[in-house]
Amino acid sequence: PLRHRKAYMQHTVSSQPPAHTMDATPQSVAVPARSLEPLPPDGSGWKMLFYKEILRFWRVAFQTIAAPVLTAVLYLLIFGNVLNRQAMPGYGGISYIAFLVPGLVMMSVLQNAFANSASSLVQSKIMGSLVFLQLTPLSHWHWYWAYVGASVVRGLLVGLGVYAVTLLYAPPLAFSIVWIAVFALLGAALMGALGMLAGLWADKFDQMAVFQNFVVMPMTFLAGVFYSVHNLPAFWRQVSRLNPFFYMIDGLRYGFFGVSDSSPWLSLAVAGAAFVGVTGLVLHLLKTGYKLRQ
Q: Whole-prediction pTM value?
């Protein structure tokens, strides 16, 4: 009925809150704006990864720096004291212990540069922390420069440590600082890239040890660290010249003495070609995510 509808409408209107109550809204509390830190410039993320890799080996420097220096000094003491009376033919009459210094320095540089990048990648795979690195907007070039750069730093630190200690047993010789720096940097960079190749291939430390013990170690010791290739038979002399490690050690020896078993320019060409080849392969594997996206 109409009167019931009017009564219902009056009851509804009377139950509404006052107009001023309906229109009132709670006042918003002003929240101060938080100041955000600026993002790092585009393309500089590799520097943070490089810094992380430096800290990784520096925090255990007694193991990663001091131990390799001690190993090289033991080689110098054992071989040098036994054969020190012999003068190296073709090297201007220098003593055998002086002849050992460039070889031991470069051997230490090569082995430690390789170990740094290889162990870092394998350790990240085993611990599962590599996935966090893949979430970052770092390109394959950024990965390469960070890992190889840290390997170069570690290799050069160990090499400088070995050279500093050998000054106690052999007079300082430096025919050309430029050649010394070129071959030291090139050798460390090549082995850092080779270490990345081994780290990408290996899934555990046993596989990395196979690469290191059956590839890196024999090629290093058979590259003329403890002898001149001129003292080898003709066949083994030619075999040694197929070893790219020989040219890196021989090139560094030229920087110390001004005399070497081969031309420094040939050594530079072979070592440079090996570096370019290994770098190209590593960059391709990083770009395709080889054994990284499993």
A: 0.81
